[in-house]
Give the backbone structure.
Amino acid sequence: MLVSEQAHAKINLALHIIGRRADGYHELDSIVAFAGVADVLTIVPADAVSLDVTGPFAGDLPRDGTNIVLSAWRLLDGYSRQQGAALAPVKFSLEKNLPVASGIGGGSADAAAALRGLIRLFDISISERDLGELALQLGADVPVCLLQKSSRMRGIGEIIEPIEIDLPEGIVLVNPRIPASTSKVFESLNLQCGQSFGAGIGNVHDVESWRNDLTAPAVALVPEIADAVGSLIFQSETICSRMSGSGATCFGLFESLEKAQIAAGAIAEKHPHWWVTATTLH
């Protein structure tokens, strides 16, 4: 038997940092949507657990056991053992279409796809609560990537509320092909434990009032992010543009996929070494 899961790019349309909690975690308020572009993860039973990676960004992933897809298998195996049965080994085949360390949740989406796929493959019975807890152990973005639906995400990523928002159809994603370290970007905020930072999202339907509080520290670490945002702002049909997550991927929203494709073509022509793609939002 074979199962295949798409790991769609997660876009932080808004990312407001509320402050840093006493336990050291940063508290956030974020609006998340998912783009049409995705990694593809295929899972088949095997004699031993393995991971084969192909695709345009395959070379940017670690080749050892630290890959988050394998971490997802180990975590679900531990859960299954607690329920009385070990998880059978599988071979993962990952088509890596999304840039690595780029603020669009590629690794988190891959981990979520692994959890969804393994549960389908082996018909694992697990409560929504237990699955959410496992996902959060893998990373703050993994729970929302399990859903792959427009959501408001709060706390450290564990409070997820699916929402209906009227979004433009088209989106252009631009990445200067420079990785941005999430941990270093958060460190650059220089928030002390217990320190407040900013206000939460006031209106979940007012796209243009949203912000990304990680933009300034990310630009300080990767100045090319400012160029990526600028390339989107200067497109005549752009509704709004900002950075996603901790960078370095930036996005611009457009009324239609056709307008997004025209803008992406213009940006790619000017910056042939960047990763530029036009797709849809859902």
Observations:
- Residues 106-122 form the longest helix (17 residues).
- The chain has a mean pLDDT of 95.
